[in-house]
Amino acid sequence: MSAPATRDLILVTGATGKVGRSFIDRLLGDARYDRFGIRALCHNRSLPPHPRIESVHGSIQHRADVHHALEGVTHVLHLATSKETPDDVMDVAVKGMFWLLEECRESKTFRQFLLVGGDASVGHFFYPHGVPVVESQPHSAYPGCYALSKVLEEVMLEQYQIQYGLNGCCLRAPWIMEKDDFRYALSFGEDVFGGPRWHELVGVARARDYMAREAVPVMLDPQDKPVKRNFVHVDDLVQALLLALDAPQARNQRMNVCMDEPIDYGELGDYLARTRGVPLVPLRTPYHSTWLDNSKAKFLLGWRPRYDMARLVEAAWAYLRPADEPRVVWYPG
Predict the structure, then answer these.
(1) Distance of alpha carbon 72 from alpha carbon 56, whole angstroms
(2) According to DSSP H, which parts of the chain are helical?
(3) Where are the domains positioned within the chain?
C-alpha cells in the first residue's frame, strides 16, 4: 500500500463523521501538521479526494482490514462507534478496537493512539452526581449497549497501556455539537436531534402546538430543578485532539473535554426567551444534573474551550443550511 509522501501517517476511523471531517479539515489547513498524511478507514461513506488523504474501505470488525489499514501508520485516531444497535455494537466497539490495539502493539511504526471517549461511560445524566465528574470516577454505564461500549473502549485502552506500554490518550467528550445541531436538540418535532425526544414526552397534539409557537423545552430533574447537561462544540474537541497529537504530557492520560460549565436548561430558556421571544415549556424528566470537570485537559494541554452557552446558541441559530445540505442524522445523538 502506498502512503502519502509525508513523514507521519495517521489512521482515522469514523473519518466521515462530524468529528472526523472537522479534524481532517483542521489538520490539513494547519501548517504545523504538514508532516502528516491521513489514511481514512471508511465503511459506508467516502471522503472527497485530496493529495494528502488516502481512503481505504473495510471494517474494523475484520482483522485483515485493520492490518491492511495500519501498514506504515504512526498514529491512530479512533472515532468509529456504534449507537444502540445490539446486533453489531460489540463487533465494532470491542472486537474492532481489539484488532486496532493488537495491530498497533505489533506495529514497527506506531507511536500514539488517540481515542474519543464519551461521558456515557460515567452515566451521562442518568445518575445523580453530587460533585463534579473527574476522570478518576469509576465507570457507570447507563442502561443500553452504547454506554457499555464506551466503558469497554476506555478500559481496553487503559489495559493496553498497562500491559504493553502502548502510548494512548483518551479524550472523553459529552454530546458533540456542530452547525445547527443545538437548535434541533430543542425541537418538539420529529426532526429533534438526540434526546430527550420532546414530542414523545408531551404527545402529538401538544408537540404540534409547541412547534407552531417555536416553543423551547426546559428540562427539569425529578425535583423540578433545571437540569445541567454537558456539551462540547466540535471545534473545541478538535482543538484538544490537535494539542494532544504527539504531546508527551498526553501519554496514557484520560481527559474530560467539554465546555467550562454545563448548559443549565433554566438559564438556556431565559436566554432564548430574552433574545428570541420564544415561549418556554418546563418538562419534568428522570434525568439529573452533571458537571464534567475539564481542569485536567486545560492543565496538561493548555487547551481552552471557546464555546459557552451564548456562543453555542448564537452559532446554531445563525447557521444557514444550504439547499444541498439537508439534515441527515446518521444516528440519533
Answers:
(1) 14
(2) 18-28, 63-69, 89-90, 96-106, 145-164, 181-184, 198-202, 204-212, 234-244, 265-276, 295-301, 309-318
(3) 8-177+230-258+290-306
Q: Which residue has the cell 447557521?
A: 319
Q: How many CB atoms lie within 10 A of CB 114?
A: 24
* Three-state DSSP state, 240: helix
Cβ atoms 216, 269 nearer than 8 A: yes
- 157 closest CA partner among 246, 68, 242, 78: 78
Of the candidates 243, 322, 258, 246, the one whose C-alpha atom is nearest the C-alpha of residue 30 is 243
Domain 8-177+230-258+290-306 part of CATH 3.40.50.1240: no
Q: What is the pLDDT of residues 125-181, one digit of tens each?
A: 999 999 999 999 999 999 999 999 999 999 999 999 999 999 999 999 999 999 999
Q: What is the pLDDT of residue 181?
A: 96
Residue 78 and residue 113 in contact, taking contact as beta carbons nearer than 8 Å: yes
Bond before 128 cis per omega within 30 degrees:
no
For residues 254 and 297, is the Cβ–Cβ distance under 8 A?
no
d(CA 325, CA 329): 12
What is residue 250's three-state secondary structure?
Answer: helix
CA distance 180 to 203: 24
Q: Say whether pLDDT at 44 is over 90.
A: no
pTM exceeding 0.70: yes
| DSSP letter for each residue of 8-69 | EEEEEETTTSHHHHHHHHHHHT-GGGTTEEEEEEESS--PPPBTTEEEEE--TTSHHHHHHH
Query: CA 260, CA 308: separation in Å to the nearest integer?
Result: 7
Helices (H), 85-130: 89-90, 96-106
